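Folds abound. Consider this:
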Amino acid sequence: MTWTSFEVLFRDLVTVVLNGNPSLVSHLLRDDRSRQVLDLRRMDTEILAAPGFDLKDKMGDIIGSHDAFTRLETMRTMFAALCPTEKSVAQLLNDPALWLLAQRRHLIVHRRGIVDLQYLEKTGESKPKGSLLALTPAEVVEQLLLVQRVGLAVTRAFNDLVRAAA
């Protein structure tokens, strides 16, 4: 749930920022990595049809509907394209603890929290293969504080982006 709260915050921020400032989508279109990650060349007609093909104030909803938001790499890529000068926030998004949180979320959602070889190889953790991922209360608090810190930094950066675009 900690990862999900961060994922929802990031997606909602991007949605609100782009709905209010659709010209900022050009930042994503000019960036090769974000174009590739979001595959903006192919728009699902159902997504375009939902608002009656009226895209005014809907660019954030369209970009935000993309499933790729569940991946940390997508968030990093989009943030870098939208806020290229925010190096300190980009560093927070590259924090290994945030990456580990994303890996743990993936394990819980896709493997019911059962530690597998792929998880062990990716993370280097020393948990027994086949065991249930168990976190201490201290680890949960650390993850919550991390998400709070990164979430606040991203929120401030997007706020600055909106102010600069106004």
About this structure: The chain has one domain: 2-165. The chain has a mean pLDDT of 87. Residues 2-165 form one domain. The CA atoms of residues 28 and 125 lie 35 Å apart.
